[in-house]
Amino acid sequence: MPSKVIKRLMITCWCFFLYTTLHAQQDTLHLSLQQLFERGTEQHLQLTADRLKEKIAHERTKTARTTRLPELNIGFKGGFLGQPVIWQNGMSNPTYPDSPDWQQNYTIDFTQPIYQGGKIRYSIRQADLEEEIARLQTTTDQADIKLVLLEQYLNLFSLYKQYLVLNRKINESERRLKDIRQMKAEGIITNNDVLRSEMQLTNDRLSKNETENNIRIVSQQLNLLIGLDEHLLLIPDTTLLSQECPTTEYEDYVNRAFLSDPALLLLRKQTELAENNIRLTRAEQLPRLSLTASNTLARPVSRTLTDMYNNSWNIGLSFSYPLSSLYRNRHKMKEARQNVLLMRNVEEQKQQHIRMNVQAALLKHHEATDRVEALRLSVKQAEENYRIMQNRYMNQLAILTDLLDADNLRLNAELQLTTARTQVIYTYYELQRAIGAL
Description:
Blueprint: H1 2-21, E1 28-31, H2 33-43, H3 45-65, E2 71-80, E3 86-89, E4 92-95, E5 102-115, H4 119-185, H5 191-226, E6 233-236, H6 250-260, H7 262-283, E7 288-299, E8 310-320, H8 325-328, H9 330-394, H10 400-434
């Protein structure tokens, strides 16, 4: 419990310091990693487009299911009926019988598919697979976007740490410059040390200003991606750096990836889609049977041209066999089979890539963890080295260049440690992405 309280106090102090010293005039927001992922998955434009594609695919499945329903058509035909001419003896002695001036025709046609060689069933299956593919594509893009957001988020850690270190270094340099000017006035040192200290202080202030601008840039990029005010200054959650990142064996990660990686699952669905396309192509070669019914109300009577309504209806079976498909679909079938082999090949390639990505991410994570332990010792050594060089310089036992080198060495060691700590977090989540758990 005390450690948690200490962490919260550290976060509060850090946020207060950043607010008061970095951009007191700019609105800030403390953003946790969970909030970043939630807003990123809700507001990112790429995921919005993916969800629209999901809805389109869902409507397509509903459309495919309507093909099982009967086809019902109603029609009307009306128009002016010209004067008929009848020749009873060859082409001579024409007669002009009386006939109405207008004709009308009302029809109702009903067709219920009974057997289509499986075409309807496989078309519905195709639409279902395409909907699942759209959903898996969203999941894949969501994991990739989370990793991109995490990289930007961790970049803020390094920038804020760089700002804090530079700010501390500038304060120490200002105090040191005051002491050096006093030593110069007493004639202990030459003006060269004063100039060198002023130049170093100027460079540090320029670096601090550059870091401030980089913080603004990264904050704006994240704000735009997650749908926040682009002028808002984001402050990351420092407790993330102390997060536990346990790992297991390589084969366990590979097995989990083969079961849950959305990109691999997407390829498997695409393979199923290619296999379904073979069945759909084969269905084009099979006979078709439908139940048909029709009712027609017409005026005048077609044979006698009597100005009367005539109603007729029929019901029956319609059978057709597409003989031309036997030679037209032959190459189409070969193409569909080759496409299945291609998709299986792509699936095997993805499995190879998963193995390589898991191995690389696991090794990089262990490497980053080892680097943190080594750099912690380097920071302590750099702090001690700077303390010694500062004492030696003040006693005129070392030159200013040695002191500035020790100061820069301490700065680099602290920044390297922060980078290494963020790299531990990034490689851990990169490993989760490789196994489909992000």
